[in-house]
Design brief:
The longest helix is centred in the middle third of the chain and has 15 residues. The chain has 5 helices and 9 strands; from the N terminus they run ββββααβαβαββαβ. The chain is α/β, with parallel strands linked by helices and 196 residues long. α5 links the parallel β8 and β9. The strands form 3 sheets. The protein has a 5-stranded mixed β-sheet. A two-stranded antiparallel ribbon has the order 3-4. A two-stranded antiparallel ribbon has the order 6-7.
């Protein structure tokens, strides 16, 4: 799969998104209910991720995982454990990031410890919150970490989509602080074109 890696700056040793989520999105009119409709073109990673999240189409899981594994190896990141960002909605029976993290763990030959960090209180969906500082405030204290799983380890922190970076900043802070991880490397499959 062709990717266009994008550097992600933050409180971690290194971080990248493999590609943008959408390449373009053009308004094409309203439907019969008055809802805006768009002709959206996605990157290859974005399309596979979209189908996995919204249609439970698992056909692209292995390709996404293999592509991510090849990228991690090409960067020579010395990671020894994968931690997936906890889902924003625990009530969803189907958790795409858990499926992707397990496939990536198999591909890299390292364990996945998504059980070491949990969301301990609900937060509103951040995509509806415009201000970065407000997103951080809402996420403050939202995560609990079990240090026994990652203390002294080199963590690959995995998320599906990078929007503003607030969630990754909050989770990385918890992993570095309470989790006492040695180093944190961040990888997301896609990122939005704008920080919203």
């Amino acid at each position: 799969m062709k990717i266009n890696p994008i550097k992600l700056s933050g409180d971690w040793k290194a971080g990248f998104a493999l590609d943008v989520q959408t390449v373009s999105s053009e308004y094409i009119g309203d439907d019969e209910y008055g809802h805006a409709r768009f002709d959206t073109k996605r990157s290859e990673a974005g399309e596979l991720l979209y189908r996995l999240k919204y249609a439970q189409d698992r056909l692209g899981v292995w390709l996404l995982a293999e592509t991510a594994a090849a990228f991690v190896k090409s960067r020579r990141w010395p990671v020894d454990v994968i931690v997936a960002v906890p889902p924003s909605r625990e009530t969803r029976a189907f958790q795409p990031l858990h499926i992707l993290s397990r496939a990536l763990g198999r591909s890299l030959g390292i364990p996945v410890r998504s059980d070491c960090i949990v969301k301990i209180r609900p937060t509103p969906e951040l995509k509806s919150i415009g201000e970065f500082s407000e997103r951080l405030r809402l996420l403050d204290g939202a995560y609990s970490v079990s240090a026994s799983a990652i203390e002294g380890r080199k963590v690959l922190l995995l998320d599906d989509l990078y929007r503003s970076g607030a969630t990754l900043k909050s989770v990385a802070g918890a992993i570095a602080g309470a989790g006492r991880a040695k180093d944190i490397y961040v990888l997301t499959f896609t990122r939005t074109r704008v920080k919203r």
